[in-house]
Amino acid sequence: MAALTAIAQRFQEASIGNEPTTLVAFLREHPELCRDRENVIELAVDEYFKQLRQDSTTSIEGYGKQFAELGNWLQSSIVRQVHLEEYLCDHPELRQLQQDILWPALGVQIGDYQVHEELGRGALARVYLCSQVSLSNRMVVLKVSGESLQEGQTLAKLNHDHIMPIHSVETEWDQRATCLCSPFLGRSTLCDLIEYGFALGIPTRATTILHAANLRTQPSDSVSTSLEAEELHRKHAYIDGVLRIAVKLADALASAHAQGIFHGDLKPSNVLLTPHGEPILLDFNLSRNDDLKLDVRGGTLPYMSPEQIAHVKDLGDLAEATCDDRSEVYSLGILLYQLLSGKLPFDVGDQDHGNPDSSLRLMENQRAGTPSLAAINPLVNDSLASTIARCLAYDANDRFQSMGELQAALKREWHIDKRAIRWLRAHRRPAVATAALSAVVAISAGIWHLQRPSYPVREYNRGVQSQVAGHVQEARIAFDNAVDADPGFLEGRMALARIHLATGEWDTALQQFVALANEQDHPASFAGAGYCYNLIKPHSLAIPWYQRALEHRFESAAVHNNLAVSYEQNSTLETTEERLRQAEEHYQQAIKLAPQSPIIRLNLARFDLQKYQFASDHVPRDGLEQIQWLLTHNHRNSEVYQVAVPLYVAVSRSEPRVLADAIDMLLDATRLGIAIDLEQLGGDPNLELLWNHPRFAELEQLVRQSDAKIDPAISLPRFIDPFE
Cis bond leading into 538, ω under 30°? Predict the structure, then answer.
């Protein structure tokens, strides 16, 4: 096991003490431990096998579920690691090879590289974040593997923006291992996107990709930027963001195929997602390389084509089939299906790679045909669903015959008319959407004169397309034209009000929302008016508008959150007790609807602190739990820490040991480069317990030495746009 942190050692002591505890209970109490990903996973694997020895009916699925509250990524990582351990138990020769390798400890130097952190591991490889000493300590990734130099030779042939490049190969560390050095481009993979994106249902906006790409980003990470990619993800729908990723992966794979290299193990964990949402193809250790006379040597069962399964497992009539471009087309189709639905298309059972029954069962499911993608995600248009279904044809001759052919089909799906169709599906009511969709399809099919829509609808469609493309001013002109031509055009008026809202013209937007509410009793316009009052103030005027929205069944986490903040800050209510009661009721509804929302979590933390300030006998443990959730999920900025400190101090009045945790948290934040406002902390008489702590001087010295500045732009808003 890797060197354990002090807190992990405390867990081991607690688990064998007078009051033994489980790992998940310990993590609830110390959520900061979740940042130490590899140690947590190792502790979980040890605990699982210990429970299995005591009770043979224990299942990894049941054990893993209890970690879901701490993050889907943690649950899935633990399950994957247990499956890997079971696989190694069934293959002692691999276990022996793994044990023979001298895995580097944190802090050691391998040639020119100082090891800082373990990023991940597999059966015969581990990946470390290092600094390269001779080149100004630039951050790089070192993959230590028990395999030969073949992956390095394969990567050396490839030069593509979306394939992980290789800097160098080190062989001096251990004669049984090879060290591949690559640039550090981020921490997240498409696994994070699938787990995060579908945690609350079907994602609709491409900003989900950016959020998933930054789930594990640390303030100290230095990764090159791609502002174009980030801007596109901020503008487009989720499906369009996925298509953009797929087009780039297809281009990377086509480039590799042209050089006689077949990846052979395409899956979510082998696609890095940079902090700006760019995909990078990883891990060519199982690839076919025609120059090196290497055939396909494996793969990951759920993502393998029927012929690849038969070839690798030597099963059935396809055992002699060749794995070519079309097999990779199949694997990319599986990946696309999963990115758009959150699910694998074919049931794999227990995923036991060594069990031929699992492989045969999967092949039977593949032969039966692809389940409807649109039935799971209705935002997927028919032509895109057909493109993916063609990728997953059982017979390779029925698929796209090359990666270039698939890439061309995906680019056609990226056309602005298709993007507008998907945007309308996601944002318009069914009856209106049907008419507008018919108009867009008619235009793109070249039968304009047969089904020409009215001028207001044409202008509305032009506005939608301009908005999708990010041309806000053109969109506003088009929506203005639509409403001028038909003042009763409801969707045009709503779109125009939202454009004014997005550009900061809150007074104008408010007038338009109020007019819509009064003239047409439109439910969304009530929420829009309430949000405008939140932005303009006073908040008390927002309350009746949100109440009307809820009465008309326009309910969302944003409406409940905004209504809660409005009550919390409403000074017109007769008693503070009533104000807090109303706010709490809506906060609970908001977090129930969107448990992953950092805005709602931070608002709840602030709210619990306000309850403590109103009633000093209240212990704000819930607020502290919200802060710990935010820190565990990498929502770290000065604002979060400024809310956290008084919460820790308040709880410490009944639980003194918590004060040391507050000092540790602030030291950790300062080391990560996050600015802490000591003057604010020192000037608050309620924080006297913190100043008097023996280690406060250590914190003060570290903060004085830090050159971090508080950036007011890096903060979470209190209110949520009800139309996002």
Answer: yes
Q: Which sign does the torsion angle of CA 227, 229, 230, 231 carry?
A: positive
In 3D space, the residue among 638, 553, 608, 601 whose CA is nearest the CA of residue 718 turns out to be 601
CB-based contact 307:323 (threshold 8 Å): yes
Alpha helices in 148-283 (DSSP H): 150-157, 190-197, 207-213, 227-235, 238-258
**Average model confidence (pLDDT) across the chain:** 79
Tell whether the model's pLDDT for residue 84 goes beyond 80. Answer: no
CB atoms under 10 Å from CB of 554, counted, come to: 18
Mean pLDDT of 584-604: 89
CA separation for the pair 103, 13 (Å, rounded): 26
Q: Which long-range contacts (CB under 8 A, 24 or more apart) does 655-663 make?
A: 658/624, 659/689, 659/690, 659/693, 660/693, 660/695, 661/32, 662/690, 663/690, 663/693, 663/695, 663/696, 663/698, 663/699
Token pair 């100290």: residue: 220
- Does residue 16 have a pLDDT over 70? no
Exposure class string for 655-692: b at 16+ Cβ within 10 A, else e:
eeebbebbbebbbebbeeebbbeeeebeeeeebebbee
Instruction: Name the residue with higher pLDDT: 421 or 637.
Output: 637
**Is 200 in contact with 594 (CB distance < 8 Å)?**
yes
Q: Is 90 exceeded by the pLDDT of residue 390? A: yes
Q: What is the mean pLDDT of residues 438-462?
A: 58
Confidence tier at 249 by pLDDT (50, 70, 90): very high
Q: Tell me which residue has tokens 């698929």.
A: 399
Residue scoring higher pLDDT (454 or 327): 327
Q: Which residue has the tokens 């020119």?
A: 112
Which segments of 107-236 are extended strands (E)? 109-110, 113-121, 125-132, 138-145, 168-170, 178-183, 188-189
Long-range contacts of 655-660 (CB under 8 A, 24+ apart): 658/624, 659/689, 659/690, 659/693, 660/693, 660/695
How far is residue 281's CA from residue 164's CA, in Å, rounded to a whole number? 6
pLDDT of residue 654: 83
Task: Give the whole-number percent of the chain exceeding pLDDT 70.
Answer: 76
| The amino acid at 685 | P
pLDDT digit string, tens, across residues 365-384:
888 888 988 888 888 888 89
User: Following DSSP, what letter does each residue of 319-358 receive, concatenated?
Assistant: GG----HHHHHHHHHHHHHHHHHSS-SS--TT--TT-HHH
Identity of the amino acid at 485: A
**CA 218 – CA 220 distance, rounded (Å):** 5
Say yes or no to pLDDT of 112 above 60: yes
Average pLDDT value for residue range 390-417: 88
Q: Is the pTM of this model over 0.85?
A: no
Among residues 552, 570, 497, which one has the least CA distance to residue 723?
497
Tokens describing residue 413: 């799906």
What is the length of the chain?
724
H/E segment holding residue 272: strand 271-273
pLDDT value of position 71:
63
Q: Name which residue leads in pLDDT, 62 or 545.
A: 545
Q: Are 272 and 189 in contact (CB under 8 A)?
A: yes
Other beta carbons less than 10 A from residue 547's beta carbon? 15
Return the amino acid letter for 209: I
- Dist. CA 8–CA 30, nearest whole Å: 10
pLDDT band per the 50, 70, 90 thresholds, residue 92: low
Per the listing, tokens 């944002």 go with 427
Q: How far is CA 275 from the centre of its chain?
A: 10
Look up tokens 């050692």; give the residue.
9
